[in-house]
Write a structure and sequence with these properties.
With about 375 residues, this protein is of the alpha+beta class. Helix content is about 35%, strand content about 10%. Keywords: Hydrolase, Signal. InterPro entries: Beta-lactam-related (IPR001466), Beta-lactam/transpept-like (IPR012338), Diverse_Enzym_Activities (IPR050789).
């Protein structure tokens, strides 16, 4: 074999050996480590919660959970007689879960339903509010009497009080509300009047357009895709102390109180906060259409004195910048909040079901806890950079 022929045959072997060597080198290159979450430390928040329980006259315990839009649950803690799996009544903290279902229905192209369309064509009754929209009903701008109006004069508004009783069905209650003329009805989008029977009518619309009960619709559109374990709606308001922390003790499932009848544990609220921080995604499931969560946060009540979206109260910055903090508080002191600037959320749970005791814990959360959580998030993220 000539020297030139040997060289010609050796060249491909050299190329192959070099390629194999390069491939081996590439295979041995260490992969980039996955990003790590910030080293959050909420010990100071825990200490303040414990101090509150130690000093509070009306609360034997509180618990809370925090989420990060990217990292999921970043902290949870329970104090006093609370446990981390405690199930509590959400009271008005039910509003964001309720509107979440309505927005999921709005996003279902297979249904003949629009949240901003008049409700008359959806309902089988001749009544007073055919020109109102579900958007107006759950932003408290429908012109129907609100919660404080009804409670201040129950004799006058007795026909609307079915929303507080576990008997009958949601359809029966909503029909009574829809056809009964009472004082105080005004044109839609002319005033803000919080809560009340307008939410029951919204729930009845949901049942009709989905051809299911409220419970079935909530399970199909929210609970299953978000893998909720506990959250459901009942109507405990005629005897709210009858709820003992067990789902079996929840009454009124056939006539659920839409604005205030949900029960939940910490984890289920956390999953819904994650959905709202991630543009309607629960894990890999697009539960709300893109933009629907932001639509819920648009201010509809501010022009009437109360910045409010659909389910969310809006914290308006004094400097005129765009709002980034939204809250959904409940009568007994529960508070859910999301901070869309930081991509975080929190939920503080209580189980002291007494009228008039919520002030101290609500003040604690709104004046101290939300700010303390935000400060720790900022610190930990800055340290990671």
């Amino acid at each position: 074999m000539t020297q030139s022929l040997r060289a010609l045959m050796a060249a491909p072997l050299l190329i192959l050996a070099t390629a194999c060597s390069d491939s081996s080198d590439r295979d041995n290159t260490a992969p980039e480590p996955p990003p790590a979450p910030p080293a959050y430390d909420f010990a100071a928040v825990d200490d303040r919660m414990q101090q509150f329980v130690d000093e509070a006259a009306d609360f034997d315990g509180v618990s809370y959970i925090l989420v990060d839009a990217e990292w999921g649950v970043i902290h949870r803690a329970a104090f006093g007689d609370h446990t981390e799996d405690l199930i509590t009544q959400l009271a008005s903290g039910s509003k964001v879960p309720a509107v979440s279902l309505l927005m999921a229905l709005d996003g279902d192209e297979g249904l003949d339903f629009g949240i901003s369309e008049p409700i008359g064509p959806y309902l089988p009754w001749d009544g007073l509010f055919a020109d109102r929209t579900v958007e107006q009903l759950v932003s408290n701008t429908s012109g129907m009497p609100g919660l404080t109006t009804i409670l201040a004069d129950t004799a006058t508004y007795w026909d609307l009080a079915c929303q507080f009783f576990p008997t009958g069905t949601l359809q029966e209650c909503a029909e009574r509300i829809y056809i009964t003329e009472v004082p105080g009805i005004v044109p839609p989008s002319t005033e803000y009047n919080y809560g009340g029977s307008q939410w029951q009518v919204a729930g009845a619309v949901a049942e009709i357009v989905s051809n299911s009960t409220w419970a079935q619709a909530f399970d199909a559109y929210i609970a299953q895709p978000c893998e909720l374990e506990v959250m459901e709606f009942g109507n405990p308001w005629s005897d709210f102390e009858s709820f003992d922390g067990s789902p079996d003790s929840l009454i009124g499932r056939d006539n659920p109180n839409i604005e205030g009848g949900a029960i939940s544990n910490l984890d289920d609220v956390a999953k819904l906060m994650m959905m709202h921080l991630n543009d309607g995604l629960c894990g890999d499931s697009q539960v709300l259409a893109p933009g629907a969560a932001a639509f819920m946060r648009e201010d509809r009540g501010g022009e009437f004195g109360t910045p409010y979206g659909m389910g969310w109260f809006i914290d308006v910055p004094e400097d005129g910048s765009a709002p980034t903090l939204f809250t959904d508080p409940g009568l007994f002191g529960h508070t859910t909040w999301i901070d869309i600037e930081r991509g975080i959320g929190g939920f503080v749970a209580v189980d002291t079901y007494s009228i008039g005791t919520s002030g101290p814990v609500r003040e604690l959360v709104e004046a101290e806890i939300i700010a303390a959580v935000a400060a720790e998030v900022d610190r930990a993220r800055a340290e990671q950079e």
